[in-house]
């Protein structure tokens, strides 16, 4: 049985577990001469931009990486592709494709802001790393690394991810787990 995504993605506290550090796959390196140092705001994406969010989370009962690609296709529609994988079986991955509204993107921007303000002074058994990148014409223009090792994001969000983001992560992870069961 798989835990609900909001528990797995956010921070899960379980007695007898030790803090973990997720292993995210190597990403394209960010140019050292980045002029842009402000937070990446998904709602400001241009149609030629690809916004990439990589969530790597490891805890007592889960260990996965989800790559989410977001491209604005119009003022009102964002095309979203998510691919889930696990470091235990890196050759197996699952992809899902959906559309987000501007309201879905605004909710995701708000959620990412929680990561930007987390103090991570406490210790939790789940370690979640989030890398947000802005890619223009196939070149990473800027990347922002966020993390939570304290359960603070989960607590401040009251255990709730933005609905559309939660749904796309669950769909990708459900497919991944189905594929893993089929190849056991």
What does this structure look like?
- The protein is α+β, with helices and mostly antiparallel strands and 184 residues long.
- The model is unreliable at 1-35 (pLDDT under 50).
- Strands 4-3-2-1-5-6 form a six-stranded antiparallel β-sheet.
- Strand 1 and strand 2 form a beta hairpin.
- It contains four helices and six strands; from the N terminus they run αββββαββαα.
Going by helix content, strand content and strand pairing, the class is: alpha+beta
**Would you list the SSEs in sequence order as H and E?**
HEEEEHEEHH
Q: If you average the pLDDT, what whole number results?
A: 76
Radius of gyration: 16 Å
- Poorly predicted tracts of residues: 1-35
- Give the helix proportion (percent range): 10-25%
* Sheet with the most strands, sense and barrel status: 6 strands, antiparallel
How many beta-strand runs? 6
Helix tally? 4
Shape: globular
Q: Estimate the strand proportion.
A: 25-35%
Termini distance? 15 Å
Tell me the number of structural domains. 1
Strand order of the largest sheet: 4-3-2-1-5-6
Short account of what is shown:
With 184 residues, the protein is an alpha+beta fold. The chain is 24% helix and 30% strand.
Notable characteristics:
184 residues; alpha+beta; six-stranded antiparallel beta sheet; globular
């Amino acid at each position: 049985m798989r835990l609900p995504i909001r528990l797995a993605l956010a921070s899960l506290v379980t007695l007898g577990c030790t803090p973990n550090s997720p292993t995210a796959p190597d990403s394209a390196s960010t140019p050292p001469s980045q002029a842009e140092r402000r937070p990446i705001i998904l709602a400001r994406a241009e149609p030629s931009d690809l916004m990439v969010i990589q969530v790597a989370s490891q805890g007592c009962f889960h260990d996965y990486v989800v790559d989410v690609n977001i491209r604005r296709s119009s003022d009102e529609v964002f095309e979203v592709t998510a691919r889930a994988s696990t470091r235990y079986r890196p050759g197996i991955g699952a992809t899902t494709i959906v559309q987000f509204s501007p309201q879905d993107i605004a909710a995701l921007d708000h959620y990412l802001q929680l990561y930007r303000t987390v103090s991570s002074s406490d210790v939790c058994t789940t370690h979640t790393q989030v890398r947000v990148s802005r890619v223009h014409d196939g070149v990473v223009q800027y990347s922002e690394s966020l993390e939570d090792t304290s359960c603070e994001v989960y607590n401040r969000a009251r255990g709730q991810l933005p609905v559309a983001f939660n749904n796309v992560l669950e769909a990708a992870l459900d497919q991944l787990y189905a594929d893993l069961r089929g190849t056991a």
